[in-house]
Amino acid sequence: MGKSTRTYEERIQEKDLRIEKLQQELKQYEAQRKQLRKRQKEEERKIRTHRLIEIGAAVESVLGRAIEIEEIPTLIAFLNKQEANGKFFSKAMQKSPDTDMVLEDIGESGLS
C-alpha cells in the first residue's frame, strides 16, 4: 500500500466542499417539503370549504329559503339543544341519508 498523494488539507477541503454541497441539497429538500405541506393545506382547506358550502346549501334546502348570517346562532342553539335533549342530531347523522327517517328513532320531542 502506497502513501496517499493528497495532503490532509486537501482531504479536509474536499470534505468541507462535500458538506457544503449536502447543506445546499438539504435546503432544497426542506423548501420542497415546505411547498408540499403548503399545497396539502390548500387542498384540505378547499375540501373543507366545499363541505361547509354543501352543508349550508342543505340547510337552506330544508328551510326552503336562504339562511341569514344573523340566524346562525339560532341554528347552533337548536342543534345544541337537540344534542342536550338526547343526542338527536348525532343519532340522525349516523343513519343512512334516507329522507324517510322514522320519527320514533329520534323522538318527536327532539324536533322542537
Order of helices and strands: HHHH
As a whole number of angstroms, the C-alpha radius of gyration is: 31 Å
Structural class estimated from helices and strands: mainly alpha
Q: Average pLDDT across residues?
A: 87
| Helical run tally | 4
**What overall form do the CA principal axes indicate?**
rod-shaped
Binned, the helix content reads over 70%
Cα separation of the termini: 93 Å
What is the β-strand count?
Answer: 0
Unreliable sequence segments = 101-112
Protein name: DUF3847 domain-containing protein
Organism: Coprococcus eutactus
InterPro entries: DUF3847
Keywords: Coiled coil
Using brief descriptors, characterize the structure shown:
single chain, 112 residues, mainly alpha, 2 domains, 4 helices, rod-shaped, disordered C terminus
Explain what the structure shows:
It comes from Coprococcus eutactus. InterPro entries: DUF3847 (IPR024215). Residues 5-46 form a coiled coil. This is DUF3847 domain-containing protein. By secondary structure, this protein is mainly α. The chain has two domains: 7-67; 69-112, no CATH class. It is 71% helix and 0% strand. The protein has four helices and no strands. The protein has helices at 8-63, 72-84, 88-94, 103-106. The radius of gyration is 31 Å and the shape is rod-shaped.
